[in-house]
From TrEMBL:
InterPro entries xref list: Ferric-bd (IPR026045)
GO terms assigned for molecular function: metal ion binding
This protein's GO CC annotations: outer membrane-bounded periplasmic space
The protein's name: Iron ABC transporter substrate-binding protein
UniProtKB keywords: Ion transport, Iron, Iron transport, Metal-binding, Signal, Transport
Coiled-coil intervals: none
Record-listed Fe cation binding positions: Y229, Y230
Family that this chain belongs to: Belongs to the bacterial solute-binding protein 1 family.
Pfam families to which the protein is assigned, alphabetical: SBP_bac_6 (PF13343)
Amino acid sequence: MLLRRLWTLLPVSALLAVTAACGGDEFDSGDPGDKTITVYSGRSESLVKPALEKFEQQSGITVKVRYGTTAQMAAQIEEEGDKSPADVFFAQDAGALGQVAKRGLFAKLPADVLGKVPAVYQSRAGEWVGVTGRSRVLAYNESMVPKDDLPASVFELTGPQWRGKVGVAPTNGSFQAFVTALRVQHGDAKAKEFLTGLKANDAQIRESNIQIVQEVNDGKLATGLVNHYYVYEQAKEKGITADKMTAKLHFFPNGDTGALVNVAGVGLLSKAAEDPDAKALIDFLLGGEGQTYFAEETFEYPLIAGVPTAPGLPALDSLAAPQIDLNDLDTLDATVSMITEAGLA
């Protein structure tokens, strides 16, 4: 089963925690008129809880949230099927949303929701929609890697000059989506060659993007493949601006897969198709206040017009992202198997 395959990548403690959570009745669907909705969040609590609390305060709607990795939550929804208590799935990447959509578990979103976001950042069938944009980058320590030595392509990172110098987080949803993009853009054989090359080149495996950026900034790692906003978040925690960090961002040029722009997005479960409270949450996330929160507090790219990006970030439309249809990133199970077979997890 997909759930079993995905969970083989998780620490035992995480697996036990999720299993325990799934056993209780905390997330019973309840009365549809009680102004309570249930969200399965593949995004971390620290990132999304403040936004959900703002929504609760403004709407009077109670939001129950089950947190886990995006892979966990997608697999849980698939296992539960039409009996899932979830009303909304808030995922870290388009691939997981697409995989749930393929199982026929999402309702089509209303036209007024889809109309807020550019078509490139939503499902072709209207079953999920991006909330924010997130660019893949190479974080690097400016004292350890001269700018002139930065790679033009992510494929260069399997070369001898990068041996033991590249941090990766193979169990992270954003890394898995990046590998799926490699498969889509270059084929499975090339993607597998890249993964086995990373392993052979002593890639430094870490639990999270946060850990990678911390180690890059502290000089314990030279580089790491992460999402762009982690450097900004850690700068904020330190009370400095991102330009004062030793960890810098390298955006790969020329449409390289390493510059993938993915989305964090939402899907509406079929049982909540007519639930105005669930739709109200999606409207909030795609409204000015929700978009401003993610731009200013989590340093992601807003997807609706008129909301500025965080100071210092290059404009979303200036990035040399690969021309990959996010709808094609829906083969997460095959990607997870490939990462495991390469010995990275």
